[in-house]
Amino acid sequence: MTGPFSPVGAAAQRRRILVIEDEPDLVRGLRDALEFEGFEVVASGLGREGVRLLRERGADLVLLDLMLPDANGFSVCEEIRATHPLVPVIMLTARSQETDKIRGLEVGADDYVTKPFSIGELVARIKAIFRRLHRVAPANEEIRIGTAVIDPLKHELARRGKTYPLSFYEVELLRLLWERAGQPVPREEILEKIWGVSGNATTRSVDNFVVKLRKKIEENAAKPRHIVTIYGTGYKLVP
Description:
The protein is of the alpha/beta class. It has 2 domains: 16-133, 3-Layer(aba) Sandwich (Rossmann fold), CATH 3.40.50; 143-237, Arc Repressor Mutant, subunit A (Orthogonal Bundle), CATH 1.10.10.10. The protein contains 8 helices and 12 strands. Helix 2 packs parallel to helix 3 and helix 6 (168-179) packs across helix 7. The longest helix has 15 residues, at 119-133. The chain starts with 15 loop residues before the first strand and ends with a strand.
C-alpha cells in the first residue's frame, strides 16, 4: 500500500491518486492527464465506495467531489480523515461560496478547486503537494506546548491522556511557529511557506487551521494561551 510518507520515487513506484467523482467526462479527462504524468489512477463515482477503495488499496492523494449521488463530500472527507489522517485531500466543488471552502478545510481538506477548472493547474497543484510531502523534513524532535506533546514523525499530538492525529499541514504549521517561538509570524508568510504557490488557501484558511490546532492544544480554545493571535499580523507561539 502506498502512502504520502512512504519512500516512493518516480523510478520505484507510481504514486496512486484516488478520484472520487461522479461526472464520467471529468473522470476520463483526469485519468488521461494524470496517467500521462505517470500517476496511477483509481476512480469511483460513489463516496462510500471511494472510502472502501482507499481502505483496501490505499492512495497517495485523493481528489474528492463535494456533490456525490450517495453521500455529502464533507462527510466523506471526515471519514477519510478519521482513518487516513496523512493522505492529502483536494476537494473538487462547483460551489464558490467562502463558507463552503472554509467548511471543507475544517473537515480536513488540504486544498480545493472550483469547477470549471484547468486540469493543467490541478496537476500542477498535485505535483506541488508531493514535492512538499517528500522534501527533506526538519529534525523530528519532540515539541512541547503547554501540556501537549507533539511527535512530528508520527503526526500525533498527546495531551492529558488523549492522542490526536495531525495532518501534514497541521504539523508544518506547528513546526513553523515552533521555530519562531515568541515572534509574530504573518499569515502571508505562513501561506507561502506551507501551502506554496499551488495552494488555493487564503489567510482565512490559516485562521481555520489555527482554530483546529487550538482545540487540540489549549486548555480553553476560546481563550488561547499558546497560539496567540497578533491582530493585523498573524500568530505567535508561546510554549
